Amino acid sequence: MMKKPFRLGTTSFIYPDHIIPNVKKIGAFFDEIELLVFESKPKEVMPPRNDVKELAGLSRDLNLTYNVHLPTDINLCAPDHRQRRDAADTLKRVIELFSLAPVTSFTLHLEMDKPMPSKDGMEVWRNNAQQGLELLVPALEDPAKIGVETLWYPPDLFKEVVTQFGLSVCADLGHHIKYGYDISRTFELFGPKINLIHLHGVDTHLEKPPQDHIGLDKMAPGEFRKIIGHLKHYTGTVCLEVFKLADLQGSLSALAKIFNGIPCI
């Protein structure tokens, strides 16, 4: 057993309810809560400003911070310039809204259509990503608070724009297991730029593609060991990105076998 070196978080959808009731129920157990803002349309689905003010108050009462998962119903890498512009405008609005609360990072998807594009298609995607970020980043006070999340494609593909724009990286280790990418290589590529880890179980036994965002207790032991080796030296935030109480409890139980200071809910 060792003391956990990282800050521990989970999502704002452990109970089937809105963000604030979830923060009230689970916030006291964690250092940070991931606020899930997956949808931006219609505008009414966005948290109102008064809710963000209440979240700021809860952060003081519960001694926690937040990270925000930015909307996924927009595409900063879209082929169409108008779509990229609309995506950048939406992201700026969300980031500005949450400036009222203590947010450590904003998680961004740089979307890519499947299957993997050709060499020429990849160059088009890179150009679109660059142009989309050019519409977003100049408006940001601190670009390093934007963490590009590792998705289904190789993390190497966004290294250039991360460096160019001074961004950070959200290393989703569950995605690494699901899609067969080398966790060690991602840590070598990005090192201190990894400002957030998304952690969740992946069942590689039955389903194709494997089911992810489940409890860590459901992982194959070998895959679980791959992850734990990196957590032992990580001092940032590790967010258990699960969406059910049972999966959260199973994940906490699995971590508690390795680290001291893991809460029990």
From TrEMBL:
It comes from the Bacteria. The keyword Isomerase applies. Keywords: Isomerase. Residues 23-244 form the Xylose isomerase-like TIM barrel domain. Gene3D superfamilies: Divalent-metal-dependent TIM barrel enzymes. It holds the Pfam family AP_endonuc_2. The keyword tRNA processing does not apply. GO terms for molecular function: isomerase activity. This is Sugar phosphate isomerase/epimerase. The lineage of its organism: Bacteria, Pseudomonadati, Thermodesulfobacteriota, Desulfobacteria, Desulfobacterales.
